[in-house]
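Meet today's protein:

…
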Amino acid sequence: MATTRTATTQWKGALLDGSGQVSLDTSGVGTFDVSWPSRAEAANGKTSPEELIAAAHSSCFSMALSHGLAQAGTPPQTVETKADVTFQPGEGITGIVLTVRAQVPGLTAEQFQEAAETAKANCPVSKALTGAPISLNAELIG
């Protein structure tokens, strides 16, 4: 069965001097301030669409990789994924870099790289973000 998740942003003012708040409606876990300066310059305690995309991408990729590894008979002990989403004002999102480190007993570095590439290609958020180049750095640890 399909699920729908909802977030709502209330924005006041013009782009450059306005500001808003995005609420995570489905989970109810929080409301976060957003503004153009927090998006195009320093965060200063506010979030941005790109940070929210990074959160979605890193968690989705971790889930996809964990699932793929478990399905192959090598469940991970840990998976840590960082997503760096680069925003260029006037151009948009210019790239995403996923950096993953994982502990997976019984797996070679080559097998891990292959599993990570498969997760990157099949993660639903990666598929939704096909308009931006997505790079991957995968490291199998201890």
